[in-house]
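Students often ask why inverse folding is considered easier than folding. One informal answer: many sequences map to the same fold, so there is more than one right answer. In these notes we will look at a single instance of the problem. The structure comes first.
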């Protein structure tokens, strides 16, 4: 298991088990997340509480809303219970916003 700790996140809350090792074709080596731009950053974290087909859309909506980004930038995989946000590194404030939004559902939380 790897933990993603970007320079912008040093000393901040680590979202959870992350994997963002890019391959030459722009994909993600460990979790096969497709990335059309090999230079783009993405942050992945595990989400507790996802257990049915209705969960990923709820997580996606909560995370996209917390970050103020288009939902197309957020990918949620039920099988691996992983959420991936494409784009720039997250600030500590954005990390806290995600944690708060998921907690507000009374069902989901970031795996630590």
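Output (designed amino acids):
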């Amino acid at each position: 298991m790897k933990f993603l700790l970007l320079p912008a996140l040093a000393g901040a809350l680590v979202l959870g088990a992350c994997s963002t090792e890019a391959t030459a074709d722009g994909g993600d080596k460990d979790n096969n997340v497709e990335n059309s731009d090999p230079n783009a950053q993405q942050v992945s974290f595990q989400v507790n509480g996802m257990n049915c087909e209705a969960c990923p859309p709820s997580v996606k909506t909560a995370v996209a809303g917390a970050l103020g980004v288009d939902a197309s930038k957020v990918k949620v995989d039920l099988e691996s219970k992983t959420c991936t946000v494409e784009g720039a590194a997250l600030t500590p404030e954005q990390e806290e916003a995600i944690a708060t939004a998921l907690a507000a559902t009374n069902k989901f939380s970031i795996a630590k």
